[in-house]
Amino acid sequence: MPGRFTRRIEGFVCGKCGFFVNGTGYTDHCPKCLWSMHVDVNPGDRASECHGMMKPIRTIGGRTNATIEYRCLKCNIVKRVKASAQDYDAGALGL
């Protein structure tokens, strides 16, 4: 079923800044630098074959409902994800 979310609790090392991210099952980007990796087709499925770095290109919304927009540096796909409490705590959003 397209668009279905798969929760995966896993940590990872950020491919951009090297920070270890302790995943919560909803974590898909680094809370320090906001970069991500293009590993999913649908959230959590790990079905993408691209594996390019996802550059944060802008934030949309405000302090309580920010969305981060990404562009994959390898395939140019643009995706949006909700910001997490960790992003605010780390000050990465600058809001």
List keywords for this structure.
26% strand, 95 residues, 4-stranded antiparallel beta sheet, mainly beta, two-stranded antiparallel ribbon
Model description:
This protein has 95 residues and is mostly beta strands. It has one helix spanning 85-90; strands at 12-13, 20-21, 36-37, 53-60, 67-72, 78-82. It has a four-stranded antiparallel beta sheet with strand order 3-4-5-6, with no helix packed on it. A two-stranded antiparallel sheet has the order 1-2. It is globular. The termini are far apart. The model has no long low-confidence stretch (mean pLDDT 89).
Number of domains: 1
Placed side by side, the strands forming the largest sheet appear as 3-4-5-6
Record field, number of beta strands: 6
Rg calc: 12 Å
Helix content: under 10%
The main pleated sheet reads as: 4 strands, antiparallel
Query: What's the shape?
Result: globular
Q: What average pLDDT do the residues reach?
A: 89
- What percentage of amino acids are in beta strands? 25-35%
- The SSE string, one letter per element, is EEEEEEH
Low-confidence stretches: none
List the helices and strands and how they pair.
Elements (H helix, E strand, L loop, with lengths): L11 E2 L6 E2 L14 E2 L15 E8 L6 E6 L5 E5 L2 H6 L5
Short structural summary:
This protein has one helix and six strands. The chain is mainly β and about 100 residues long.
